[in-house]
Every structure is written in C-alpha cells, then in structure tokens.
Amino acid sequence: MDLTLWQYQFRIIMLGDSTVGKSSMLKRYTEDQFLECINQTVGVDFFVHFLEVEPGVRVKLQFWDTAGQERFRSVTRSYYRNSVGGLLVFDLGNRDSFNHLKQWYDEVCERVHPYSVLFVVVGHKADRANGGERAVDRAEAEKLASQLGAPYIEASSKTGHNVKEAFDLLTRRVYQGLKSGEVQVRDGWDGVKTSGPTMKSLQRVKLNEPAEEKKSCAC
C-alpha cells in the first residue's frame, strides 16, 4: 500500500481529562497494541493512520493527542482551530472525567470559530465498567452526547472493543459532512486537506466569502 496516496486529510483532536485513556486508544487503533503502563502525554503527541471510507476514497488521519493536565492547556488549545473532528473521551469509572466533557466541548467551540468541528463521545475503559466499576450510566452518557449533537460509543483499549469503530465513526461522519456541505474545505484552514482530482468536486471557500457566515462546530 502506497502511504503517499490519499484523497483527503482530516485532523482529529483527542479531548478529555488526564488518564482517561486517549493515548491508549490511539495506540490500539494505529498499532493494535495495548500497554498496561503508558507515559502521560506531555503537550501534544501525533499519530497517523489511513482509512478507506468508500471504494477509491482514502483518508489520511492525523491525530493530535492532547495532554489532559491543566498546566498544558495553553499548548493544547492552540491545536483546536485546525481540527475538523474531536473524540471527547471520558473514563466510565471516573465520574469527574464525565462531568468535565462539556467544558472540553465548550473550549473547542469557543476557539474553532468560524470553522466546523464534528464530535464523537467515547465512554472508555468499558472492560472495567463491565466488571462493576461503572460510575456513569449509559443512558446518562447518551443524553449528554445527544445534547452535544454527537453519537455515543463505549470502548476498551485493553480488549480492543469498539476502538476501531469509534475512530471510524468519526472519520465517516466528517466525510459525510464534506459530501453534504456541513464541512467545507477552506483556504487558510488545515482541518481538511484535499489531494488530486477530488479537489474539483469540492467548492473551496475563501475566508472573505459570504459562505463564511455559516458558523458551526456541531455545538
């Protein structure tokens, strides 16, 4: 497989408190590995993966894995603006990490204007939740996700359950947004890049055009 060939590049940002398992999810998705002990992210780490969203359409996914600690927030906030998708991750056994999701969501929405960001909410460490350590009911998590205009999925990096599905869901959601016009390729914004003949099928929007008045971050 020629890794230089892709039609779209999507920049995806990982959001959530420290220790909810954002890095573990990326490790499982990109390398199919799980490490019991993994160093906390300092600042921002980068991962790359490729996904064929439909026959002949290949997406390069560039993931930005942000640190959840408050002392790194000034660094991670600088990456919000050039993201087209976000995984809002919380630990099913950690009530506080769930309570903070809205704060993460609002923070991105404040800084992404005038671009569009689509989200998926992930209840992580489902293996522990199934073992009786659940602190957040599924119905409650689904309600919050619905309020944020995002689908909800529960996953476990340890077992691999629904990890691929979570990332694929967000990728296909962004791709469908491109097809519907909810997400647009814009000059001066790196959330979505196109390559090759697919550029001809999309309307490139410049920042000073009237279309800029359509503001959305799925919020």
TrEMBL record:
Annotated Pfam families: Ras
Keywords from the UniProt entry: GTP-binding, Nucleotide-binding
Top-level taxonomic group: Eukaryota
Keyword field contains Repeat: no
Keyword Nucleotide-binding (UniProt): yes
InterPro entries given in the database record: P-loop_NTPase (IPR027417), Rab_GTPases_membrane_traffic (IPR050209), Small_GTP-bd (IPR005225), Small_GTPase (IPR001806)
GO molecular function, one term: GTP binding
UniProt record similarity statement: Belongs to the small GTPase superfamily. Rab family.
The name this protein goes by in its record: Ras-related protein
Organism: Triplophysa tibetana
